[in-house]
Request: fold
Amino acid sequence: MSFHVVIGFGPAGAATARLLAEQGHTVRVVTRSGRSPEPGIEHVALDATDSERLTEAARGAAALHSCAAPPYHRWASEWPPLAASLCAAAETTGAVLVMLGNLYAYGPVDGPLTEELPLAATGPKGRVRAAVWEQARSLHEQGRIRAVEVRASDFFGPGVTEGGHLAGRVLPPLLRGRPVTTLGDPDAPHSWTYLPDVARALTEVAGDERAWGRAWHVPTQEPQSVRGMVDRLAAEAGTGPVAVRRLPSAVVGLAALFSPLIRELKEVRYQFDRPFVVDSSAYETAFAARPTPLDEQVKATVDWWRERVATDE
Reply:
């Protein structure tokens, strides 16, 4: 077993750290505020943009898992220093840099998304994510670091809360049999990446040198529309069919005046206004991990949210 450092403890960072600990690895989690230790996981408080401190925290690590991200509306200014610090720590320590990415860097695409597509985003968030990966890939090609990026579609599953499009806005009302609202076309096919599958991919590529030097899509099930997913979730919850309502553009515009998250989502609205389909066949051909069966994803998500909602009441 080996030593791994996980940057960030949001849904993906927490799932990755806990999976690594379950596998018997020594795990250190780096966040700004730190946390109380938990079985198999040490929590350290430091600013990951401080490359000297991050390097010290990562000495001896086999892999450095980048699962943190700045606040959505500060990506353009805060991603570059964070990425530079991660690369510096990886270069000094020799740890494999395992980066959790998303699909913004491709920009709008007609047809399924594959890893071979150019990074052609025109919006600021897509451009900065492309630049972060290009920096790491360039250093990898120069032989200065070993790097790999794992790209996921919208997170779904236990642990995904306010940031998920099938999470805080959907599950609580659904569990009460009430209508749910959604951005974009509720009937457009959309790929949802199950959070435990993200963690499995991040841990798998860290230890397989065949993965390094390129990007991979997390194993993801066949696309389902928002309405289709809501129907499955409601059936599992036993609340019967619930209505799915598209948020009118005027309401979205008004909400954007008060919510930085909604305001920033305008750049990627295309992902919900038309089909958004991920092809993860390259990963599934090369490696062992497969997407969790959809019925298992739905059951685990409903069970997790049912307990959370009951606790909040």
The first strand starts at residue 3 and ends at 7.
